[in-house]
Write a structure and sequence with these properties.
Blueprint lengths: L2 H5 L6 E4 L5 H8 L6 E4 L5 E6 L5 E6 L2 E8 L4 H9 L8 H6 L3 E8 L2 E5 L8 E6 L2 E5 L2 H8 L5 H6 L19 E3 L3 E6 L6 E4 L10 H20 L4 E5 L4 H11 L4 E6 L9 H9 L6 E4 L29 H5 L2 H6 L2 E5 L4 H4 L6 H8 L1 H15 L3 H9 L4 H8 L10 H5 L14 H15 L9 H27 L3 E2 L5 H8 L3 H4 L7 H6 L6 H4 L8 H10 L1 H9 L2 H4 L5 H8 L13 H20 L8
Parallel strand pairs: 13-14, 13-16, 14-15, 16-17
Antiparallel strand pairs: 1-3, 1-9, 2-3, 4-5, 5-6, 6-7, 7-11, 8-9, 8-10, 11-12
Catalytic activity: L-aspartate + L-glutamine + ATP + H2O = L-asparagine + L-glutamate + AMP + diphosphate + H(+)
Protein name: asparagine synthase (glutamine-hydrolyzing)
EC number: 6.3.5.4
């Protein structure tokens, strides 16, 4: 039994990418176990080793060249074979990768080099490390840690306590010697064992298309993304919250080759108007079965935290809502669903950051001032902080360096983050001074070379939110798959992201219309009466009730805290705060990142006891 099989003991999928080198044979032998699969280089040496299902790999080889797509990508094998036949160098694949539908990893080999990349959204992440003297890639950081015997990097755990953790801090994995490949970039593994080369393959488009030009592109990209999931037939399920995002996905799915189950969880808040909107949409989708669950049967936020044992390779705030997110799985699988679709990602793509108006104010002042006045009225922005944010001309590097010195300061008015680079990060009172020192070290080291995701603050903020959401969804997908129902979020496919980001922000985000890009993209597909919604339900009541009802479990979590043992949090402060769930300070002091780290560390302890092979403590 291999160390990886011991660690991923429930048959979780993974794959390791190896260069065409003799040293790769030893790595492949260490991965051997039940259901291990191997794709080989033309030389016969292992190229891709791991566990995946039949429908998750499309591969074509021509001579010494080859292209493999792991995940969802409905490409015709003959088309892939033709492209592999023309491949002379792996750097040639940028445009090809950007043209594909779906969510997948791309692996290519040619001329003795291997290219490995994930997705734009972080739903598919790439990592690399040196194992047995050879550089290898993998879709999971914990697998590389198991192969190298790497220890947890205490500093990176401390970084994950930030709320929020600004770009690029989350790109660094939590094990020493394991490296991340940033979204939109690829890694090249050389056959001779030379250092890994990282290069960019995707850049955000210039947001210059009008709404009229961009809406058809968004419609086509999203329709293709949904069709990629429905084309196999059978039965699928789809969220139908009543919001515009899930409604769009559900209508598109209803036109495909699969039978569709629409799934609605009403909220506990009596002012929540999701259910009437969901019923209105379902009534216009003949052939779709609408399943409405009882609100009182829905698990609350913070439920079941002590029972989570999913093997994940990084902390996630998705842990807080795991029980709720997966509560529909048994009923949907019993009804025959093979895949569950969500509308997650639409909020960050069809709407966008108001931060674009920082640049627009200087380039198109008349139009920008009109819109800013509308936003101020809509969101009740106070004037002085709003003007201060608009006057702030610091580069991202200067902003980032300054943020490292403000981690203990009170939170500024939200508008400063909305119109700035991003929300300023904070460490809350229960985080120890030792942890704060580690975070400052990490931020100062990153500040020496940090670059924004875009020179435009709005585009930077949009991409950052896509990346953060993609990380959370990546872990939810792994948890849902283990629970018995794979899930997918078509809004976060690469082509959909590029199409949405190409639309002029003056038309994409406006105080006068709600999600105009999605409304226009879905015109003629979703009935106008369903596109008329301008509200969005909030789950604040559900979260507050969950904190009260699950107080005992949270206190038990802190009593056995791994973070406290590492000296990163004050156990007594956390217990005291948890015993007072109605404390007004919790409106500003956010527990999410701390709980995510704590639950993740508990999961590592469980894996360590099970396998005895993965190092989980700093030396």
């Amino acid at each position: 039994m291999s160390v990886v099989t011991d660690m991923l003991r429930h048959g979780e999928p993974y794959f390791v990418v190896l260069p065409d080198h003799e040293a790769g044979l030893a790595v492949a032998r260490r991965l051997d176990g039940p259901h291990t699969r191997i794709v080989r280089h033309a030389s016969g040496r292992p190229w891709i080793v791991g566990r995946w299902s039949d429908d998750e790999l499309t591969v074509a080889q021509a001579g010494s060249a080859g292209i493999a797509l792991l995940g969802c990508c409905p490409i015709d094998p003959k088309t892939l074979a033709r492209r592999a036949g023309r491949l002379r160098d792996v750097v040639e694949l940028d445009a090809f990768a950007a043209s594909l539908t779906g969510s997948f990893h791309l692996v290519a080999t040619a001329a003795g080099r291997v290219r490995f990349q994930g997705s734009v959204s972080n739903l598919r992440i790439a990592h690399h490390a040196q194992v047995d003297g050879v550089q290898v890639g993998c879709d999971r950081a914990d697998v590389l840690a198991a192969l190298t015997g790497a220890a947890i990097d205490e500093r990176q755990v401390a970084v994950r306590l930030l709320w929020p953790a600004p770009h690029p801090l989350l790109d660094t994995p939590l094990w020493r010697g394991v490296h991340g490949v940033p979204a939109g970039r690829y890694a090249i593994l050389e056959s001779g064992g030379r250092p890994v080369h990282i290069a960019r393959w995707w850049t955000p488009p210039e947001p210059v298309r009008s709404l009229a030009e961009g809406a058809p592109l968004v419609r086509d990209a999203l329709a293709d993304a949904v069709r990629a999931r429905t084309a196999a037939g059978g039965t699928i399920s789809s969220d139908l919250s009543g919001g515009l995002d899930s409604t769009a996905v559900c209508f598109l799915a209803s036109t495909g080759d699969s039978r569709v189950l629409a799934s609605t969880w009403p909220g506990l808040d009596p002012t929540d108007d999701d259910l009437p909107w969901a019923r209105r949409a379902a009534a216009r989708m003949p052939g779709v079965e609408h399943l409405v669950w009882r609100a009182e049967d829905s698990p609350l936020v913070y439920e079941g935290l002590l029972d989570i044992d999913d093997p994940l390779d990084e902390p996630t705030i998705g842990m807080l809502d795991r029980a709720r997110a997966l509560s529909h799985v048994p009923n949907l699988t019993a009804a025959g669903s093979r895949l569950h679709l969500t509308g997650i990602g639409g909020d960050h793509l069809t709407w966008c950051s108001e931060g674009y108006y920082h640049r627009l104010l200087r380039r198109r002042p008349v139009a920008a001032i009109r819109q800013l006045r509308g936003f101020r009225a809509l969101f009740t922005w106070p004037l002085r902080p709003m003007l201060g944010a608009l006057a702030d001309t610091r580069s991202y590097r200067r902003w980032f360096a300054g943020a490292a010195g403000d981690l203990r300061q009170p939170l500024p008015e939200p508008v400063r983050g909305t119109l700035g680079w991003t929300s300023p990060p904070r460490l809350f009172p229960w985080v120890t001074d030792h942890a704060a020192e580690l975070v400052v070290e990490a931020m100062r080291a990153a500040a020496e070379s940090v670059e924004p995701l875009s020179d435009d603050r709005g585009m930077h903020a949009d991409i950052e939110q896509i990346l953060v959401t993609g990380r959370i969804l990546r872990q939810w997908e792994q948890m849902s798959r283990r629970a018995g129902l794979p899930m997918a979020s078509p809004f976060l496919d690469d082509r959909v992201i590029s199409a949405c980001l190409s639309v002029n922000p003056l038309e994409r985000v406006t105080p006068w219309r709600y999600k105009p890009l999605l409304v226009e993209a879905m015109r003629g597909i979703v009935p106008d009466e369903c596109l008329a919604r301008t509200s969005k339900a909030q789950a604040a009541r559900d979260a507050a009730l969950g904190l009260r009802r699950n107080r005992a479990d949270l206190i038990a979590l802190w009593d056995q805290s791994r973070l406290a043992e590492m000296g990163l949090v004050d156990r007594d402060r956390l217990v005291d705060l948890t015993e007072r769930p109605d404390d007004p300070s919790l409106r500003h002091a956010v527990l999410y990142s701390t709980i995510g780290c704590e639950v993740w560390l508990r999961g590592l302890d469980t894996m360590e006891r099970s396998s005895g092979d993965v190092a989980t403590a700093a030396p």
